[in-house]
Amino acid sequence: MEISIWDIIEIENVLITVVLVLILKVVADKWKAHKKKNTIVVEKEWKDYVLPHGPLVELSKGKLWSVTGKFTPDRNMIIYKTNDDKLIIHSAIVLDEKTQKQVELLGTPHVVIIPNRFHCRDAKAYKNRYPEIKVLCPLDSFTMISKKVDFVLDGSVERALATYVSSEEFAYIVPVGAKGELSYEVALGNGNKGLIVCDLMFNLPSSEACDWLGWIIGSILGSLTDGKQPRVSRLFRFLALTDKAQFKQWVSEQAKKSYKVVCVAHGKHITEQCQQKLSNVVKTL
What is the tens place of the pLDDT at every residue in 88-128? Predict the structure, then answer.
């Protein structure tokens, strides 16, 4: 069997990713142990969760908004408004009071979706502030996320979402060939639709990688872009991709749909030429 130069590069990419993930895990475990040993546990208030973030930005008139939190790397919260003025919040971020009040003026916070195990940080703050809110996550990640959050989840997206919002407005899609997270198709009015994805697709410009650490991590993990064309990162391919051929087919099928906006968790949302840019994502695999 012949091995091409591209096979060697792919193997090297996987090895680099594995080493980095192991190093980050060791560092994180040591930090958590140190913090637990030297910290008195006190219930955090809303303001204790607040980190720097951008303004509330409207992506689709009266239906879809986004706020970018200054994490490493930057992370986007997506807010969808249903026809009965309820808010579905994807990848929740705690905002300063002024911006949070702007969110509350849009409608009633109704559901928070934790998209995967890496986006759990602020979910509890929302549950504390809005006791009636329902916090859901993908079934594939339910056990792991349940261990990470300090409260009882209200169910999985697959089993419970349709109870709280019509699938005609906000429906989950299973990314075939991947695991750990879901995507969501949302109605924007006048027959238009949008797509919400999490870590399966990055569009994070290298110039906006938050800080030097974000730039280094993003470069190694292959998650940085030019801000115009999204891509699938090395980290996602290593942690979540189960069948490359099936996943490429799934992305190709999404590219055939006339989405008006594609929301990503990291980087710039796609608001033009969505079909072409989704088609190009396949090439990054």
Answer: 999 999 999 999 999 999 999 999 999 998 899 999 999 99
Provide DSSP, 126-178.
Answer: HHHH-TT-EEEE-GGGHHHHHHHSSS---EEHHHHHHHHS-TTTEEEE--TTB
CA–CA separation, 147 vs 7, rounded Å?
37
Structure tokens at 210: 């938050």
Task: Report the helix count and the strand count for the chain, using DSSP H and E.
Answer: 10, 13
Note the pLDDT tens digit of each residue in 117-135.
889 999 999 999 999 999 9
Global confidence as pTM: 0.82
Residue pair 200/183 in contact by the 8 Å Cβ criterion: yes
To the nearest 10 degrees (0 to 180), the angle between helices 274-281 and 244-255 is 170
- Check: CB of residue 201 under 8 Å from CB of residue 264: yes
d(CA 250, CA 227): 23
